[in-house]
Amino acid sequence: MAGHSQFKNIMHRKGRQDAQKSKLFGKLAREITVAAKLGTPDPNMNPRLRAAIIAARQENMPKDNIERAIKKALGNEGENYDEIRYEGYGPGGVAVIVEALTDNRNRAASDIRSFFTKSGGNLGETGSVSFMFDRTGIIEYDRSVADDDAVLDAAIEAGADDVVSGEGGHEIYASTEGYRDVAKALEAKFGEPRKAALIWKPQNTVAVDDETGEKLLKLMDLLNEHDDVQNVYANFEISDALVAKMGG
Predict the structure, then answer these.
(1) In this structure, is residue 38 part of a structural domain?
(2) Which part of the chain is the TACO1/YebC-like second and third domain (predicted)?
(3) Which of 104, 143, 179, 204 has the fewest CB atoms nearer than 10 Å to its CB?
C-alpha cells in the first residue's frame, strides 16, 4: 500500500498542532536547559545542545529565549527534569516510543498510560518495542542545498550510513557514534541543517487502514500536546487520502 510514513509525517503534524507557540517554546527551552546541564554549555562541543538550538531556530524561537534557557542551566536554576522513555502499542498493534522530560514522574506516567488506554492500546515495559527501532542520528537539509548526487557524495565522504533524497529534502543517517562527526562535516559543506538529532527510526513500517490510522494520529496528537512529551516515534504508514483528510 503506497502511503505516507508516519515517521516522516509526524513532526509536521506536531508543528501544526502546537499552534500555541508558548507551549512549543517551553518544550524547546526545557530540552536546551537539560542538554546544557548534562554537558558543556558550548554547542560546538555538545551535540545534543547543538541539536536543541537548531530545533529552536527552525521554530523561530527568539535568540533571547535560547540564551535564557542556557543560562538557567549554568545557574542551576529551575526544576530538575528526569528523562524517561515510554514504550507501548497503539491501535492496530503499532509500536510507539515516547520520550519525555518531566519534573513529576507519577503525573507523566499516569497521563501517558491513560492516552494509550483510551486509544485502544496499552503501555508496556521499557524495551517492549524499542527492539523494532534503530537508535540513529539524522541530519536533514532542504532540497535547495545541493542535488542528490552532491549530497550523496558528501555524506559518503563524511562517513554516513544512508541517504534518502526526495521532494521533502535530503535525510542523511549516521551511527550514534559517528553522528557528530558526520553532522560537522556536512555543516562545513552545506551550512546549518534544518534538523540534526538522535532519533528512533523504525526498522519496518506497518500499513494500517484509514480507521486505525485516524485513531493512531489522534493518539500521536494527544501525546505531542502533553507538556512533558518531547518526541514521539511509531512504525505505521497511512494512506495519502487520510493525510489529506486530517490536514497533514
Answers:
(1) yes
(2) 81-236
(3) 204
Which three three-digit cell numbers place residue 92?
492496530
Range of the domain at 172: 143-193
Task: Give the integer Cα–Cα distance in Å for 133 and 121.
Answer: 19
pLDDT tens figures, 136-168: 999 999 999 999 999 999 999 999 999 999 988
206 within domain boundaries: no
Q: Is residue 247 a part of any domain in this protein?
A: no
* Distance (Å) of CA 170 to CA 40, 159, 238: 29, 16, 22
Residues in the chain: 248
Inside any domain, residue 157: yes
Q: Which three cell numbers stand for residue 124?
A: 508496556
Domain count, the chain: 2
213-236: per-residue pLDDT in tens? Answer: 999 999 999 999 999 999 999 999
Q: pTM of the full predicted structure?
A: 0.87
Task: Say how far apart CA 220 and CA 121 lie, in whole Å.
Answer: 12
Displacement of CA 56 from its chain's centroid (Å): 13
pLDDT at residue 20, as a whole number: 66
Q: How far is CA 108 from the centre of its chain?
A: 18
CB half-sphere exposure, 237, CA atoms < 13 A: 11
pLDDT value at residue 13 = 46
pLDDT band at 44 (very low <50, low <70, confident <90, very high): confident
Which CATH number do you get for residue 48? 1.10.10.200
Written as nine digits, the cell of 82 is 528526569
